[in-house]
Amino acid sequence: MTRELKVLGACPLDCPDTCSWVVTVENGEAVGLRGNRDHPYTRGALCVKVNRYLEHSRAADRILHPMRRVGPKGSGRFERISWDEALDEIAERLTAIVGEFGGEAIWPYQGTGTLGYIQGESGQAGRRLWNALGASYHDLNICAKAGNVGLRHTNGTPAGMDPETFALSKLIILWGTNTLTSGHHLWKFIQDGRAAGAHVVAIDPVRTRTADQADEHLAIRPGTDAALALALMHVVLDEGAEDRDYLENHTKGWESFEREIRKYPPSVAAEITGIPEQDIRALGLRLAHTRPTGIRATMGLQRHRGGGTAMRTIACIPGVTGDWRHPGGGIAYSTSAHIPIQADVRPDLLDKPVRTLSMTRLAEGLADTADPVKCLWVYAANPMGSTSDQNRIREGLLREDLFTVVMEQFPTDTVDYADIVLPATMQIEHTDLHAGYGHMYLIWNEPAVAPPGECLSTTETFRRVARRLGLTDPGLHDSDLEIAAQLLSGGHPALEGITVERLRAEGWARLSVSDPFVPFTEGFPTPSGRLEFVPEGQGYVPPFSARADGPYKLAMITPASHTFLNTVFGNNPELMRRAGGPKILVSEKDAADRGLHDGQRVRVFNDNGEITAELQVSDRVAAGVVVTTKGNWPKFSPGGANANALVGERDADMGRGPTYHDNLVEVAPLREPS
Ligand SMILES: Nc1nc2c(c(=O)[nH]1)N[C@H]1C(S)=C(S)[C@@H](COP(=O)(O)OP(=O)(O)OC[C@H]3O[C@@H](n4cnc5c(=O)[nH]c(N)nc54)[C@H](O)[C@@H]3O)O[C@H]1N2
Ligand SMILES: Nc1nc2c(c(=O)[nH]1)N[C@H]1C(S)=C(S)[C@@H](COP(=O)(O)OP(=O)(O)OC[C@H]3O[C@@H](n4cnc5c(=O)[nH]c(N)nc54)[C@H](O)[C@@H]3O)O[C@H]1N2
Ligand code: SF4
Ligand SMILES: [Mo]
User: Fold this and answer.
1) Is the Cβ atom of 15 under 6 angstroms away from ligand 3?
2) CA–CA dist 335, 43 (Å, integer)
3) Is residue 5 part of a domain?
4) Long-range CB contacts (within 8 A, 24+) of 21-24
5) What is the pLDDT of residue 285?
6) Does the keyword Oxidoreductase apply (predicted)?
C-alpha cells in the first residue's frame, strides 16, 4: 500500500517570489512538486526552472559524499572520503591557519544559493562558528547593495511598497526589472491593475519579454536612469502637479533638489538617455496626472557605476508626487527590510574586531599578500560562475597555499578548485524558514524526504565542524528548531501570532501588518523622519560604459537568464537545451559595422577576458548596446568562460555593489583553431 503525504515547503532560491510549495511524498520519495494554490502570492504556480527541482535533486551529477582533491587544483579530480576524514583534515588545517595567521585568514564566502534564515544567507548561517574562530566578515554585497544604500539615503530603508498593491496602481513603471523572467508572480498583480485601467511602462535598454507585454517601452541608454528620473520630475513641476502639502510636511531638502531638477529638462535628459524628448515628456505628463503611480525598480537598474545614485534619485519621485499617501503608490525594490527578523550571530564570540571582505572583490582578496586569505570556505555560492573577473579569480583559486572548502550539491566550476568538498542537502531534505524579498509572507520549509547519500545541511555541517574543533558554546550546537524559535522571538508587532508551531502547521503566514499595506504613513526611518531628497549637484553619475575613447565600443548588459537562476540549473540538461548556449544580442548596425551575421559564432572580449557566443542580430537592443545573460557554467560554455570573464572588478558608487551591467566589450568573428 502506498502512503502519500503532502509536505509544505518554500523555494529557497534567490528570487523575490519565494514560492510556497507542496511536495507529494510516496513511500519516502518525493514524487510531485507544485506551487501552493492556497498561497496568495504563489497562487499555485512555480516557474520553468523550479518545475524541474525534483528531477534536479535526483540528478546523476549530485554530490553525495565528502571528497578530497587528488589532481591538481582546478582539475576537478577527487577521491571519496568519510565525513570523519573530512572533519579531521578541516580541523587540522583550520587550527594551523588560525594559529599562524589568525582567524581573519579565513574567508567564509557565503552566497545566495539559499536565502533561508536557518540554512542560508538571510540568517548568515555559520556566522556563529566564524565568530568563534575570529574569521573575517563577509559582505554579501553581490546583488542588491548599491540600491539598498541609495534607497536608505532617500527613505531610510530599502523597503517600500507591498508588491501586491500594484493591483491598485493606475500607472505602473517597471524600471530596470524584467518581471516575467526574474519574478513572474508579480505579473498577476500588474494584470489586476491593468484590468482596472492601469497603464504599464517598461524602462529597459533591452526589449525584454516584459517590455513586449507592457503598454510602452522606453529603451534607455544603460546607466542613465537618474537623468531620466530628474526629467520626469521636471515635467511634473512644469505641470504644477507636485504635491505641495506632501513636500512641506513629509520631505526634507526640497529647495536644493528643486534646483537640481531644473537642470534636467527633457531635452537635456534626451541627450543623456537616448530616449526621444517627446517620449520623456509624455511619460512625465502621465506621471504628473496619474495617482497612484507605482514604480517597480529592482536590481538590474543598480548594477552600474552610478547605480546607488540612480535608485536614490528614482526614489525621490513619490516624494514629489505625494504617491506614498495612496495604496498602490511609491516604489518597490525589496521587501526584505520589512521582515523584522534579526538572526543572533553571537558577536560576543568574537574576541576582537575583524576585517570585512567584499564578496564582489574575491579576486582582489585572494591576491592580497600583506594580509593573506589562507582558507576560503565557499557555501551556497559559485564564484567561478557568478563573481566578477573570472580569470583573476581562477588565478587566486589556483594558489597552492590556499585551503579551499566547498559545501555543494553539484560539481560546479568552483568545486573543481576545492581541496575538500562537502555534500550539501537540497531544500526538500532540510528544515528552513524563509521570507520573500518580493512579498510580505514568512514561509516554512519542512523537510519532505531523507537526504541522499551522506549529504548534510549547512547547520548540521557547522555543528560537526564546531564539535571537531572542540568548541563548546551551546549557541554553536542549537538545533534547527531552536534556531527557528530564536528567529521569531524578537517581539516585533509584525510577528505577532507567528510561531514555529503555526508555521509548521499552516506552511506560511502574512506579516501582521495592515492589508493593503501602505508604508511610511507614520514617517520615514531617516534621521529627519522625512523623505530626504538628493542634494543639489548629485545629478547623474555617468556609467563606465559611457567612456568613448577606448578600444571597446559596446556597452554590455548581463541580466537574468529565463532558464537558470544565477548558476543554479546551469547543469540541468533540459534547461541547458532550452537556453541553447551563450548568446550575444547585437543591433543590426553594430553587426553590419563589424561584418557579422546572424547565427555566427563570435568572440566577445575586452581586457579582462573573452567568451565565445552565438551572435543574434536583434532589434531588441539599440546600437551601442549588447546583451548576454548570466548563469551559464564556464565549463559547459565554449571557450570555458562565461560573461563574468568580461566583467571588471569595480564597485558601484554605493555599498561596493557590483557593476555587472556596466562593461565595454568588442565582438569579432571567432578565430577557429587552425
Ligand atoms: N529566471 C531568473 N530569475 C531570477 C534570476 C535569474 O538568474 N534567472 N536571478 C535572481 C536574482 S539573484 C536577482 S538579484 C533578481 C534580479 O532581477 P532583475 O532586477 O530583474 O535583474 P536583471 O535581470 O539583472 O536586470 C533586469 C533588467 O534591467 C535591465 N537593465 C540593465 N541595465 C539597466 C539600466 O541601466 N537601466 C535600466 N532601466 N535597466 C537596466 C536589464 O536589461 C534587465 O532586463 O532576479 C532573480 N530572479
Ligand atoms: N554577469 C553577471 N553575474 C552575476 C549577476 C549578473 O546580473 N550578471 N548577478 C549577481 C547576483 S544578483 C547574484 S545574487 C549572484 C549569485 O552568486 P552566488 O551567490 O555565487 O550564486 P550561484 O551562482 O547561484 O551559486 C549558488 C550555489 O549554491 C548552491 N546551493 C544551493 N543551495 C545550497 C544549500 O542549501 N547549501 C549549499 N551548500 N549550497 C547550495 C548551488 O548548487 C549553487 O552552485 O550572482 C551575481 N552574478
Ligand atoms: S525561482 Fe522564484 S518563481 Fe521560481 S519557484 Fe522559486 S520563488 Fe517561485
Ligand atoms: Mo541577486
Assistant:
1) yes
2) 19
3) no
4) 21/46, 21/50, 23/54, 23/428, 23/448, 23/449
5) 98
6) no
What does the alpha-carbon distance between residue 420 and residue 86 come to, in Å, rounded to a whole number?
7
Say how far apart CA 486 and CA 177 lie, in whole Å: 35
- The answer to whether the CB of 662 is under 6 A from ligand 1 is no
With vertex at residue 68, the alpha carbon angle to CA 65 and CA 70, rounded to the nearest 5 degrees, is 130
Q: Is the pLDDT of residue 655 over 70?
A: yes
| Ligand 3 contact via 10 beta carbon (within 6 Å) | no
In a domain, 273, yes or no: yes
CA of 115 to the centre of ligand 2 (A): 10
Tell me, using a 6 A CB cutoff, whether residue 383 lines ligand 2: yes
User: Are 471 and 576 members of one domain?
Assistant: no
| DSSP codes joined into one string, 515-542 | SS--TTTT--SSTTSSEEPPPTT-----
Distance between CA atoms of 10 and 31, rounded to whole angstroms? 16
Q: Which residue in the block uniquely carries the three cell numbers 541547458?
A: 576
On whether both 278 and 326 belong to a single domain, the answer is yes
Average pLDDT, the chain: 97
> What is the chain's Cα-based Rg?
25
pLDDT (average), residues 304-327: 98
Q: What is the pLDDT of residue 548?
A: 80
The answer to whether the predicted template modeling score (pTM) of the entire model surpasses 0.85 is: yes
Closest residue to atom 42 of ligand 2, CA basis: 409
Which positions ≥6 away from 322 have C-beta within 8 Å? 242, 243, 245, 246, 247, 291, 329
Give the Cβ contact number of residue 153 at 10 Å: 21
> Based on the structure, what is the number of domains in the chain?
3
Distance in angstroms (rounded) separating the CA atoms of residues 226 and 537: 12
Q: Is the CB of 47 under 6 A from ligand 3?
A: yes
Exposure b/e, 533-554, CB count within 10 A at least 16 = b: bbebebbbbbbbbbeeeeebbb
Q: What is the pLDDT, as a whole number, of residue 2? A: 72
CATH number at residue 193: 3.40.228.10
User: In the structure, what pLDDT confidence band is assigned to residue 3 with cuts at 50, 70 and 90?
Assistant: confident
Q: Considering the domain boundaries, does residue 360 fall inside one?
A: yes
What spacing in Å lies between the alpha carbon of 617 and ligand 4's midpoint?
28
Please identify, by atom number, the ligand 3 atom nearest to the C-alpha of residue 47: 4
Task: Assign 42 to helix, strand or coil.
Answer: coil
Q: Which atom of ligand 2 lies at the shortest distance from residue 12's CA?
A: 32
As a whole number of angstroms, the distance between CA 591 and CA 427 comes to 44
Nearest to 283 by CA among 239, 324, 315: 239
Mutate which of 56, 206, 386, 630 for ligand 2 pocket (most atoms within 8 A of beta carbon): 386
- Kindly tell me the burial class for residue 674, based on how many C-beta atoms sit within 10 Å of its own C-beta (0-12, 13-18, 19 or more): exposed
**pLDDT on residue 674:** 54
Q: Which residues pair with 422 in a beta bridge?
A: 407
Distances in whole angstroms, Cα of residue 97 to Cα of each of 134, 211, 374: 12, 52, 7
Look at residue 672 in the predicted model and tell me its pLDDT.
65
Q: Are residues 326 and 358 in the same domain?
A: no
Q: Find the 660 Cα to ligand 1 centroid distance in Å.
A: 10
Domain harbouring 97, CATH code? 3.40.50.740
Give the total residue count for the chain.
674
* Domain range enclosing 562: 544-669
- Is 516 domain-assigned? no
- Closest-CA residue, ligand 3 atom 4, reads 47
CA 568–ligand 3 middle distance (angstroms): 12
* CA 264 / ligand 1 centre spacing (Å): 27
Q: How many CB atoms lie within 10 A of CB 342?
A: 12
